[in-house]
Amino acid sequence: MKIKTQIFEKISLIPSINDKFFISDKNIHHLKNVLRLKHGDIIKIIFNEDYEALGEIIDVKKEVICNIIQISKCTNNYNLNVTVCFAICKASQNELIAEKLTELGVKNIYFWNSEHTSYKFEGTNAKKERLEKIIEGASRQSKQTFIPKCEIFNSLNDVLKIISKDDSTILYCSLDNERKMIRDLKNIKNNIYIFIGPEGDFSGNEYNTLKSLENAIPVTLGNSVLKSETAAIVATSLVFGMM
Questions:
Q1: pLDDT band for position 78 (cuts 50, 70, 90)
Q2: Which one of 3.40.1280.10, 3.40.1650.10, 3.40.50.2300, 3.40.50.1110 gives the CATH number of domain 81-240?
Q3: CB of 206 within 8 A of CB of 164?
Q4: Tens of pLDDT along 4-18?
Q5: In the CATH scheme, what architecture does the domain 3-73 have?
Q6: Are residues 21 and 68 in contact, defined by beta-carbon separation less than 8 angstroms?
Q7: What is the DSSP annotation of 64-112?
Q8: Nearest partner of 88 among 107, 125, 114, 127, judged by Cα
Q9: Is 143 helix (H, G, I), strand (E, B) or coil?
Q10: Chain-centroid distance, C-alpha 117
Q11: Confidence of residue 48 (pLDDT cuts 50, 70, 90)
């Protein structure tokens, strides 16, 4: 059975096998005009990020309707909940990070303005909507059963306000001498926050703030000085490699 694509739907009532399901407006264009699905094609539908179903297309004339032929609870294969907190860079870099971190399986992607950030987000709502579309598309392409949450913060302190200190470990990629290799970390929490600084590194104030946190650990990614987007991808891959 070949599955043509995967979509995400938020609904109030989960369907059962043999129920007819009407695809929402946000997905109709992609299915009808981009993929040009036809009667009999099979798609995967993720409902509320809790259930995954297979639907057989039975109508694509005006609306897109499918018959639910299989449904089950989603299974999360990740033992870690990883959030990447990425200092805002150029638009193209932010979009690359949104796509690649989603493919890797992070739960949240937080963008924040560093004191050294050269590119400030203007028209934040439009920027966020653009990033959310990229994230949903990457979730669909990589067959994730969830869509990472995207948020934009004005400062490091604003991000830290929403992090629970009791059940979280904060890793920050540092150029200081007192750094640890990610593979050598022990007894870290399941909720991991990875902080990536901007071009030019964290400011002195930001370093002092991170160093003052009991649950924060400075980490190194090797001898090379990496670009921000490269550092985010490498750090995330190494963290998932601990599973």
A1: low
A2: 3.40.1280.10
A3: no
A4: 999 999 999 999 999
A5: Beta Barrel (2.40)
A6: yes
A7: -EEEEEEEEE-----S-EEEEEEE---HHHHHHHHHHHHHHT-SEEEEE
A8: 114
A9: coil
A10: 22
A11: very high
pLDDT tens per residue across span 131-152: 999 999 999 999 899 999 999 9
**CA dist., res. 242 & res. 237, Å (int):** 9
Rounded to 10 degrees, what is the CA torsion of 54, 59, 64, 70? -10
The total number of residues shown for the chain amounts to 243
From CA 45, how far away is CA 196, in angstroms rounded?
33
Which tokens is 241 given?
């490699």
Tell me the torsion sign for CA atoms 125, 131, 135, 138: positive
Task: Provide the greatest CA pair distance for the chain.
Answer: 63
